[in-house]
Design goal:
The chain has about 280 residues and is an alpha+beta fold. The protein has helices spanning about 5-20, 40-45, 90-95, 125-130, 145-155, 160-165, 175-185, 195-215, and strands at about 25-30, 35, 50-55, 60-65, 70-75, 80-85, 95-100, 105-110, 120, 255-260, 265-270. Helices cover about 30% and strands about 20% of the residues. Helix 1 crosses helix 8, helix 5 crosses helix 8 (about 195-215) and helix 7 (about 175-185) packs across helix 8 (about 195-215).
Length: about 280
Amino acid sequence: MPELPETETIARDLDRAVAGARITSVSVIRADVLREVTARELARRAIGVAIGRCWRRAKLVVLDLSSGDRIVVQPRFTGGMLIDAGDLPDAERQYSTVQFVLGDGRTLHYRDVRRLGTVSLMNAERFEAYTSALGIEPLDPAFTGAHLSGLLRGSRQAIKKVLMDQRVLAGVGNIYANEALWRAGIDPSRAADRISVAEAESLRDEIAGVLTESIEHRGTSFRDYRDANGARGGFVEHLAAYGREGEPCLRCGAKLIGTHAIDGRATVLCARCQK
């Protein structure tokens, strides 16, 4: 967390708000979030440069710069990008780790409560190498049921674990793997190679569906996630599995079960209707 819908929301917010803005100064408050660049080098290569397109790849927020470099943000658990026009609450500013001051006086903060996320600066060649191991994007038209079936066919790992493997499918994490499997009626512990072609078709549709719906609601906020304007995501009210352990299944009424048996992550399922 943040996963695909949250990073997509942040990237879209930034693209609307700061694309075309010029960076006039850079302050690094917590250098431990930096990767592939020092604080001094980040300032040298970013100051005076304009921000171009802001977009997402997997769970990364990417800011193209007019110099050809890219600011690459991996929020992980508690990170995010916040636009500050001078009205950002002090409670949010205290977790700012890197600050980019823009020509119009606004500040773009990389905020991270636990500082487990990262901020990198990469040229285009390095970015391509960095992302080359990532799997297909689940909202890409090329991601079909047949494509998913082919990805699953050679793995005996639990289907939920495979869906969360960024080398297989880019951007899906624990929340949306839980949700898609509940929607598709598939037990998260089933071996991936035991998923039929028809089930893979259904699962592909549910993955794309839940991600799209969450983007429409601007992501899921349990604790720390905020969009680029500091607002919470609204999809938490539409979750059917994740975070609902012990509550009734919205499909059949049975009590939802919670377990950490699959890769040590929280898994919530209905034992009655997920087979």
